[in-house]
Specification:
The protein has about 450 residues and is an alpha/beta fold. It folds into three domains: about 1-75 and about 190-320, HUPs (Rossmann fold, 3-Layer(aba) Sandwich); about 90-180, Glutamyl-tRNA Synthetase, Domain 3 (Glutamyl-tRNA Synthetase, domain 3), CATH 3.90.800.10; about 375-445, Arc Repressor Mutant, subunit A, CATH 1.10.10.350. The protein has 19 helices and twelve strands. It has helices at about 20-35, 55-70, 85-95, 105-120, 135-140, 190-200, 210-225, 255-260, 265-275, 285-295, 310-320, 325-335, 340-345, 355-365, 375-385, 395-405, 410-420, 430-435, 440-445; strands spanning about 10, 40-45, 75-80, 100, 150, 155-160, 165-170, 180, 205-210, 230-235, 240, 305. The protein has a three-stranded parallel beta sheet. Helix 1 crosses helix 9 and helix 9 (about 265-275) packs across helix 11 (about 310-320). The two termini are about 60 Å apart. The structure holds glutamic acid. Glutamic acid binds near residues 13, 14, 15, 47 and 207.
Length: about 450
């Protein structure tokens, strides 16, 4: 993908009607990381004109969840605070003859659709409302009917170069004129998104492929409002391993739940971005590294299965390489000390970050050692031979002395040491743990004393 010349402006536009799931995260990441890589702006824009379903609590949860992923918007907007702009756009569209009032109820529309289907016609709106005279409208309004407003489509082939799908076309002659204003006067996102994208200077709209048809309509709205449309990209959708689509409403794979289960944000970001592309799914060290990998042309066309088990594996693999600076604050919050040396000693043994607490207890103690009776003599000798001079290389120096003195080698040498020092059959390398445990505690544990 070539670099854009002017700094791009992208947005993530969720409706705050539920918790974000991994599919929403995929959209947010593509937009935010592309903006970050190209030195552009990333806007979080709440599509909250549906006041019946939007809540402040979900809006706050969305900001928190994308923050957990490491995405920090340059700007946050609420559509519910921008109604005057939509009012103005509606007046313009009315003046241009592109918006017309229609009075059919949902039942009447359904009856029309059924009758068209019976006649073998596509169930599109017949534009009956366009034919109404002023007098007929007055009668309908006299009956107490309130109009909804439809956008009169041009009925032509609208096409664009899609960043993901290449050349795309939508024949708007096959679509119903879109309702942009509901009977209660509230706006649909089909209109409000376009008004905001124009005013906020949005240059790229990356969203799910379920929006391809909307794009045909929205390009007409951009043009009717006298603006050039942005560049569009429609990525494939993530589905559950069963093939079922993700639903915010049903709470599928919410970021919240995955976070609570201990999944790493960076692993989730990596999987959400790389699944369903021709790029390999591998751990990344930072969001910048992930941003560098994004290539819209490599996103496949088929839906992509998001497998939670793959996420768990990627969380572990991500932790195994994570730098200390990246996790220092989180370790401190878990009450884990030991600095970088401790982190480097244990990270390769973690499935979850919280597993580090177990190894910190091993370092800190107190730990009641376990030993087989036949090893007691050997372990006392090992305690006696612990080097006086402690340091990072203490373990190999100790073994170099202990091995000939005890006559032991291999498992008979190493296994009792591990069990006595850590209380566990397996774990991080003793070479890295011993310097952290310290001479005093090590000697006590080897002698069978709690320390
Ligand atoms: N609120 C819409 C959605 O979440 C926004 C679509 C768009 O990005 O334009 O599907």
């Amino acid at each position: 993908m070539s670099r854009t010349t002017t700094p791009p402006v992208l947005r993530f536009a969720p409706s705050p009607t539920g918790l974000l799931h991994v599919g929403n995260a995929r959209t947010a990441l593509y937009n935010a990381l592309f903006a970050r890589r190209e030195g552009g702006t990333f806007i979080l824009r709440y599509d909250d004109t549906d006041t019946a379903r939007s809540t402040d609590a979900f809006a706050d949860a969305i900001a928190e969840d994308i923050g957990w992923l490491g995405l920090h918007p340059d700007r946050i907007e609420y559509q519910s605070c921008r109604l005057d702009r939509y009012d103005a756009a509606v007046e313009r569209l009315k003046a241009a003859g592109r918006l017309y009032p229609a009075y059919e109820t949902e039942e009447e529309l359904e009856a029309k659709r059924q009758s068209r289907r019976r006649r073998g016609l596509p169930p599109v709106y017949d534009r009956a409302a366009l034919m109404l005279t002023g007098a007929e409208r007055a009668v309908l309004e006299g009956e107490g009917r309130r109009p909804h407003w439809r956008f009169r489509l041009d009925g032509r082939k609208v096409d664009w170069d899609d960043m993901v799908r290449g050349r795309q076309g939508v024949d708007t002659a096959t679509l119903s004129d879109s309702v942009l204003v509901r009977e209660d006067g509230s706006y649909l996102y089909t209109l409000t998104s376009v008004v905001d994208d124009i005013e906020m200077g949005v240059t790229h709209v990356v969203r799910g492929e379920d929006h391809v048809t909307n794009t045909g309509v929205q390009i007409e709205i951009f043009e009717a409002l006298g603006a050039a449309p942005p560049v569009f990209g429609h990525h494939n959708l993530l589905v559950l391993p069963s093939g079922e689509g993700l639903s915010k409403r049903l709470g599928h794979l919410s970021l919240r739940a995955l976070r609570d289960e201990g999944e790493e944000a960076l692993a989730l970001a990596g999987l959400a971005v790389l699944t369903g592309t021709s790029l390999p799914v591998e751990p990344v060290a930072s969001l910048d590294e992930l941003a560098a990998r994004i290539d819209f042309a490599k996103i496949s066309r088929a839906p992509a299965r998001f497998d939670p088990e793959e996420l768990t594996a990627l969380t572990a693999a991500t932790l195994h390489h994570l730098s200390y600076v990246t996790v220092a604050a989180r370790l401190a919050a878990l009450g884990i000390g030991g600095g970088e040396a401790f982190w480097r000693a244990v990270r390769g043994n973690l499935d979850r970050l919280t597993d580090a607490a177990r190894w910190w207890r091993v370092v800190e103690g107190p730990l009641t050692p376990s030993m087989a009776p036949e090893d007691a003599g050997f372990l006392h000798l090992a305690a006696d031979l612990l080097p006086q001079e402690w340091g990072e290389d203490v373990y190999p120096r100790w073994i170099a002395v202990l091995k000939p003195a005890s006559g032991r080698a291999g498992r008979a040498l190493f296994h009792p040491l591990r069990v006595a020092l850590t209380g566990a059959e397996s774990g991080p390398e003793l070479k890295a743990l011993l310097p952290l445990i310290g001479r005093e505690k090590a000697a006590a544990r080897l002698r069978g004393e709690a320390a």
